[in-house]
Specification:
Elements lengths: L2 E5 L4 H12 L3 E6 L3 H4 L14 E5 L5 H8 L4 E4 L6 H4 L3 H20 L8 E7 L7 E4 L3 E6 L6 H5 L15 E3 L12 H20 L2 E7 L1 E3 L12 H10 L4 E3 L6 E2 L1 E3 H13 L6 E5 L5 E2 H11 L6 E3 L3 E2 L11 H6 L8 H12 L9 H10 L3 E2 L1
Parallel strand pairs: 1-2, 1-4, 2-3, 4-5, 5-9, 9-14, 10-13, 11-16
Antiparallel strand pairs: 6-7, 6-8, 12-15, 17-18
Helix pairs in contact: 1-9, 3-5, 5-7, 8-10
Length: about 375
Amino acid sequence: MALILITGGAGFIGSHLTRHLLAARHTVRILDCLAPQIHGQVPTGLDWLNGPGVDFIHGSVTDELVVRKALQGVTTVVHLAAETGTGQSMYEIARYNSVNVGGTALLLDVLANDRHRSVNRIVLASSRSIYGEGAYNCPSCNNQKRHYPDGRNMAQLSEHRWEHSCPTCGDNLEPVATHEDDPAKPASIYAATKYAQEDLVRVACSALGVDYAILRLQNVYGEGQSLNNPYTGILSIFSTRVRRGQHLPIFEDGHETRDFVHVQDVANSFLAAVQSPSALSAVINVGVGTKTSVAEIAAHLSVSFGVSPDLLMTKEYRLGDIRHNFADIKRLQKILGYQPEINLATGMQRFARWVQRQVLPEDKLNQANFELKSRGLMGE
């Protein structure tokens, strides 16, 4: 029976993955610091951490003694632990680097210096954010050439020039699905730390003879996601406002798009990576392969709660936000043999039903936006 370590395993994805691993008769060890930003000042609903088949260690991936203890006897590491939040990362640079990059480096350092290491595979949770603005083509002048525009700067955003223009003809570019061989162009500190994690895992695992899989996750949503964190998770932020009868403020013009993937499909993708009998050593997109605008997802969510959509296009913007991104998922299907199962309508209904059973959280969106505006990272 394999012992699987999940760093950050008490969180959103980790809690779902744990259930899948236990059902597959694995033993799970979870290392998690139970950060208040994610779990609240007094964490609740975590009794399952003390359940059968689960070994819980309360601690940080930046603590060497804790990491050494957590790795003992482990065959596979699923590395989820990370600070998340594009906007917040732009002014808490040291903290994001310390946890995301430093924590990954420490994990690999302990493995590299352990002569008796039992770990034979690492599965890293990376992010679609490493693509930056992603891939585009120009329907007007050359539909075959792929363009990879730089991140939008404050001057461009302040003029409400949301879309990217073709450098040849000036017409708007159209987004196309990003595939794993597209260049990385991080547009935020968070994205930069995730890309650094990827390099650390790829180089260290290759040198140590440890197999790895890097899963680049699109926008993950679903039952169990933090409703307390105002810096990430657009659906959790919007769900609180719907329940409070407030309008949903939509950045830019609402036509920015994302690839929304349900947490069940993400957990199943991790399970497939953990259990793959073949060596992987691969980077794999995890999404559904279709794009949905933020205005559309907000309307879907409202309807799932049984209310009419009350959307406000604020024309506000944040430095580091991308305009469009959705995934090419051919590798997910070919290498891991997985095809996403939860469509958007079903996923929204499941999420809404779960949210309505939770304690109504405080709406912290204005607080988070104020922090960004006070640092010159957000405008309108």
